[in-house]
Amino acid sequence: MVCSLGEAEAVTVRGASLAAGWRPCEEMYVVAEGETLHGISDRCGDPYILERNPHVHDPDDVFPGLVLRITPSSPRPSVPVSPP
């Protein structure tokens, strides 16, 4: 996948890079394998993903390659999970 960042600048993202833990929260976001709307919303700080994407009819029907429009803000802090 090639994402254009300007006229003379482009970034290529492939396989393992998409699955890596760090992904930028851009206005146009491409869902990677294993991601959920809830996870994207938490990481990118956008609680209104469904409202901004009327083409997503079922929040549980999210698949790799789905393009979402998000409004990135500061991500919510992760809550550490303590082992049982």
TrEMBL record:
Q: Which InterPro entries match?
A: LysM (IPR018392), LysM_dom_sf (IPR036779)
Which Pfam families does this entry report, sorted A to Z? LysM
Q: What residue stretches are annotated with the LysM domain?
A: 29-71
Under which name does UniProt file this protein? LysM domain-containing protein
